[in-house]
Write a structure and sequence with these properties.
With about 200 residues, this protein is α/β, with parallel strands linked by helices. Helices cover about 30% and strands about 15% of the residues. The strands form 3 sheets. It has an 8-stranded mixed sheet. A two-stranded antiparallel ribbon has the order 1-2. Strands 8-10 form a two-stranded parallel sheet. The longest helix has 16 residues.
Amino acid sequence: MSIDSKTILFGYFDEEFHLRGIETPREKYVFIRSLMKDGCVNLSGRKLSKIPFEFVNFIPHKITGLILDRNQFKDFSFLEHFPQLKMLTLNKNDNLEFETLPKMDHLTMLSMNGCHIQNLYKELKRIKKRCPKLEYLSVRSSFFEDGTVPAAEATHRRRTILIIFPNLKVLDNIEVTKWERQNVKEYLRAMRRKGLCCML
């Protein structure tokens, strides 16, 4: 059995999120590379709450995408070890909070579909401060409870998100149109004319 097939077959992460079942640095490297395609690593559905130790030590500089769907992430400080990250997916993670999210100057795509987010708009504002180049955002089917902005219909929520992220190109897999951008600008102008402070 070759190193490649052995590591792919027997490698796994223990409760402390260390790589087990394979021993040598060479085998660990091969296993990690087996999870990586075109600079993107897929760690979906592994019940992780933090990134495995080996990923930070072996190839973080080569990783441009992380697929972390169906996990249990709460602390995102580990992302500081991935300076070239451009794409991050966190679909179906519960109780997401981004207080520990580091500055991510290269991140352009973020997906959080099907997540339970206690305060969606608060977390989106945190993301905006730390991800200035974000162009693609998806929060479809995310359940949230928010005391800052009243529960609203999909159209209102989309407009609210575009107020937070005026430079988005795609929101919820739908391209942001010139009409939408103009509508947001007119809405903000109307709010100012009425002397109302934007809730955001």
